[in-house]
């Protein structure tokens, strides 16, 4: 499984997730949508939304699942 967090620094909900990342057991790539507009475009094309934080979960077959809501993301990552 691959994990990527779409976020930007000034977002308080993103900060909640970012502060939880050191406590999770999986590697989560950080994708700042303000520093790299390509990430924002990729998220919008895949989901129709640009809301952050957003966690991209990609399984071994390449199937993508997108998760929103900071609390849900934190619960999911800490349960792994």
From TrEMBL:
Pfam families: Glutaredoxin. This is Glutathione S-transferase N-terminal domain-containing protein. Coiled coil: none annotated. InterPro entries: GLR_AS (IPR011767), Glutaredoxin (IPR002109), Glutathione_S-Trfase_N (IPR004045), Thioredoxin-like_sf (IPR036249). Residues 1-80 form the GST N-terminal domain. It comes from Bacterioplanoides pacificum.
